[in-house]
Design a protein that fits this description.
The complex is a heterodimer of chains A (333) and B (275). Chain A has 333 residues and is mainly α. Chain A has one domain: ABC transporter involved in vitamin B12 uptake, BtuC, CATH 1.10.3470. Chain A has 14 helices and no strands. In chain A, helix 1 runs parallel beside helix 13 and helix 3 crosses helix 12. Chain B is an alpha/beta fold. Chain B folds into two domains: 160 residues, P-loop containing nucleotide triphosphate hydrolases (Rossmann fold), CATH 3.40.50; 48 residues, no CATH class. Classes of the chains: A mainly alpha (333), B alpha/beta (275). Chains A and B meet through helix 9 and helix 10 of A and helix 2 and strand 6 of B.
Amino acid sequence: MIMHLRTCGLFFLLLACVVVSLGLGRYPVTLADMQQYFGFALEADPERMRMLKTLLLEVRLPRILAAVCVGAALSVSGAAFQAMFINPLVSPGLLGVLAGASLGAALGMVLSTSWIVVQASTFFFGLLAVGLAMFMARRYRGDRLLLLVLSGVVVSALFTALLSIIKYLADPYNQLPAITYWLMGGFPLVNRESMTILTPVFILGIGIVISLSGYLNVLTMGDEEARALGVRVTWLRIALILTATLISSLTVVIGGIIGWVGLIIPHVGRMLVGPDNRVLLPVSALLGAFYLLVIDNISRLMFPVEIPLGILTSLLGIPVFAVALRHGRGGWS
Amino acid sequence: MEKVHAASIAFGYTDKCVLNDVSLTVRQGEVVSLLGPNGSGKTSLLKILLGLLRPQCGEVRINGLPVADQSPKDLAKRVAYVPQLHRMAFGYRVLDVVLMGRLAHSGLFGRTRKQDGDIARAALERMGVSHLTEANYSEISGGERQLTLIARALTQGARTLIMDEPLNGLDYGNQIRVLEQITSLAADGYTFIKTTHFPDHALWMASRVALLRQGRIIADGPPDQVMNAKMLSSLYQADISLVSIGGGVRTCLPRSVLHNAPVPGSHAGRILCAG
């Protein structure tokens, strides 16, 4: 019951944060404006309404949605991976999805000027890296989980090395800064069209991972025990890895590399509601969404120039993590 | 009434044969102890009975149905696995650990229902640990953890419990408590197949003993027929005596202990050595 109250509380906190974020920006939008706009008031000035529409629907809402989706997706994937691999140091990038997507983005920027091509290439290489890691792990006999982790490390290293080659070959005046800036993460390029397409995919992916959270508790018992309890371990793991990879890859597509969220938020969630994944996963999703939205507001408002999001999540995330570890109940349990 | 039947099981890896022509039939209500030195194939045999490992030859049937043909969920409703005492990575609530046993009965997304909670509570009550329902699994004692895991097995609805070293790492009092629970469940018709490193545990409460050596069953039957000093000594490659302590109860001891033991008082009765 208390768990449900906390989850509901977080949900309303997130909702309030979304509304406040809509009003934040260079051009002031008051709560009354929003009420007028979303309430379709008749006596409103049409000129101002058109301006509000551009501001809210074309500029601010897509960006807020992007922060919410990316934060939730990274946190849920991180929590699911930490349970699945029974390891507190695991983040969504474990199996190489972020390294692969980075390479994809860089390659796209060097080879094409079309934004759609860059996004497609980012997504494709993220999936490719994880596919390669899973394929490698299947080729060898031994502890499945350990082999997956090792393959993930190897594939990440490979794609990072390839990324270095691309950076080295890229045009240092135009392409290299673009690649570097993109890898720092952030949402300045988010637009309404891409969020209209991607938001449902995020919701679906996050929903699938959360709906499988009852099985995640059993997976933390180890493969044999889980199987003896009636779980099809291999299929379940493939489904979870693929879904988590899909949404993690999409986070790079819309926001570049945003580090630390997927590692820290599940730990903060565990401090709040304990380790039961059936509660932890939805709570992590809400916390991650809230956290990234707040950070994104800071990144676009604090200084005259926008600070890349990935830098802020790292700078702010590490102290949060240090505090979280200190207050954790004996390690991470 | 036949419950678990393993027929001429052979299992091995490319470079090593683990089990060779092992057959075992276990009837309902029996408590079977598998004894054998390290590496004799006990744990592999358990995993084959559970369907976790596929044997290269032979098959396992439970109530006449081949294990290999059943889905994990169907199998989990018949056979439960009680693992060796382990540390769990996360401190789940005891009730949530027991509720994992209901996954085999749940739908696609593994959600548990209200009645599942009642079944889990009843199982904890049955094992005498209902006061731990809300406790943190990682903070309770080893004996309580083992009883919780048995409760989880009961929650699965399984009538056959397969246990890997159920008393490993428990203190003496907890060993006795867990053994008593096993005996009481067996009287209710539950079947137990367990491995143990302590021949004494088999002597105390097993209705049957199977001795494994180098992947073969070398003896199988009631403890008083199968277990003697010669057999145990050859099984473990050590000098072992079986001592009758009255009332038809026997216990085993290393022979060196028997001969070096100081005699406490001149009128102390001599211990009778059998075998």
